Amino acid sequence: GYFPDKSSIMYELMGGAREVVVGKELPLYLEAREDLAARLVYPMRNGVIERGDEKAWRVVYEITKYGLEQFRPSVSEFDGFYVCASISSVSPRYMYEKIFDIHRSIDEETGLVKAVTIIPQPLAVAISHKVPTCVVIESGHGNTQVCPISQSPIRRATVALNRGGSDANNITSQILYDAGYGDLAKEEAVVRRVKEAVGLVPRNLDEAVERAKREPEKYRVQLKIPGTRITIDLERESWARFLIGEYVFNPNHELFESYFKRGLPKPKDVKVGDILFRGMLDFGEAIVEAVEKCPVELQPYLYSRILLSGGNFQWKVPREFSDVAVSSVAKMELLMREKGIENVKVEMAREPKFSVWRGCIVYSYAVPTHYEWSWDRMEGWLKFR
Questions:
Q1: What are the start-end ranges of the H helices in 179-294?
Q2: 164-266 is classed in which CATH architecture?
Q3: Which site in 36, 57, 315, 351 is 20 to 30 Å from 213, CA atoms measured?
């Protein structure tokens, strides 16, 4: 959500009615680049919103209301939506309470919400794939959750990582800076586009970098930003495209040390409530740590079904680079073999950006309307009427 400068004359001339802008019109309100960091609010970091972060909660309110308004039926007898929301498996109880309060307020204002339920994101992924026993790795913009599931999430075994798509953005920004695009390195939208277009996950980082440096023209990448005159050419820095994908899975390689020394934010261990979000733990080690918190009898079944979900796993593998670049599934299998785990089956969620949404839809249809919310079981419908 974007908070316009209310002190400007243009804000008053344009009506001055909107304190926060969300939705398709948001780009029309953006001001100078230096204002973005202060005025553009991404509400969730590490999958959690601080209890007192009023701006973040205001953005959640406005986005939720905006989304519901977009689908308001025209029929007069409409009595409100049944809403299924999904949040991090490590979200504290106050987030559930706040999300319920937001929907209650929206219903009081619009009549759009009849009842709400909330489920953990990894459970939504498992439901969408009809897999009752598995390990779900849900990796989004702000964090990654490694959650063993046996009928329901095993919360005490969940491993949370303070690393997600935003960290891949950070190293992409540094790569752009090194390639001579210092101004563009500050533009989050451009950085994200570059990451998604040029980033590669290496089979072996050392070998991939060596080959890319030996054959710079083969691995050279150019990217035209649609609707602008901007063309980005990494030229001899094109070898660094392998760093982007590796950083997501394992930021511990010595090549990253020089970036940390030059100011790249190093993923840190962060305590949020009673949950420790680990910064530098590689994905393979995170899975092993999560599974080994579960009963020994259950562990083989968990390793036999690992589901990858979230936009942070959507990496391209160009055919011409298939000898050095791999998919997220292949990379995870390699990491697991390094840990001595052989009988492992890794799968990519169908449309990983949307598997949580699909799980929410399936869940909301399956829960009977008379099944009311229980704070003990953390399931059911919280009804407003």
A1: 188-198, 205-214, 216-219, 241-249, 255-261, 283-291
A2: 2-Layer Sandwich (3.30)
A3: 315
